[in-house]
Amino acid sequence: MSKSVPRIQIPESKEKIMRQIKALEMMVKEDTNDHDRNIHETALNDLQKALKISQISESLEDYKQLGFDEMENVRVGIEHGVDVIFCDKPEFNRHQMREIERGLKKGVDVSIYTDPKFSWQQMFIIQNGLEKGVDVSIFAKVEFSQLQMELLNLMLSRDMDVSKYAMPEVPAEKMALEYFKDIGISISDHEKPLEFFDFFDHYNEPKEEKIE
């Protein structure tokens, strides 16, 4: 026998929201037909969103003294479950926070690059390596330049041995020469290997996201 579904009105109290969530979770478990289950799951989803908003608002009360950008950083962190200690830092700009948020959505370990010393471009490279299953610990160091990180990420994604080149003192030009050598492209002595790179080609990102 199907259960009637009361009209869902979002309560103002977080405690009331939680009580309604528990009641709906029980209904979903006991539902015997798809129609009732879909109705209850939709209502449950709405309440869970309301609870999340309530929790974010409550948490932000402690950060009223922050500026707009810092408040946005904290909001993004709370919303996606990142430790607010990473976000409550004026050193993070909105571009860096975007990469942290993007990494959280993709399910990668953002703690590896939540360091204000990394530029947003470096964060993006580390995040890309994590997605590919690359050992990013090799290049996720502030001592490496963006170009060095880029090249090491590409080389590692091709299963190249980077042990001779994964050092901050090795110029990016030398890394690039080794990369081209591995893929069978000859570079003459008077040519600059970095000029042959279009790093954007290695990422599935919109054109406006191109790293410059």
How would you sum up this structure, described in words?
- With 212 residues, the protein is mostly helical.
- Among the domains are: 14-61, no CATH class; 117-209, no CATH class.
- Helix content is 52%, strand content 0%.
- The protein is built from eight helices and no strands.
- It has helices at residues 14-30, 34-60, 68-80, 84-87, 94-106, 120-132, 146-157, 172-182.
- The radius of gyration is 24 Å and the shape is elongated.
- Mean pLDDT is 74; it is low at 1-8 and 205-212.
Salient structural properties:
212 residues, mainly alpha, elongated, disordered C terminus
Structural class: mainly alpha
Rg computed from alpha carbons, rounded to a whole number of angstroms: 24 Å
**Poorly predicted runs of 5 or more residues:** 1-8, 205-212
Approximate strand percentage:
under 5%
The helicity comes to 40-55%
User: How far do the termini sit from each other?
Assistant: 62 Å
Order of helices and strands: HHHHHHHH
Query: Mean pLDDT score, rounded?
Result: 74
What form results from the Cα inertia axes?
A: elongated
**Number of E-state strands:** 0
Number of helices: 8
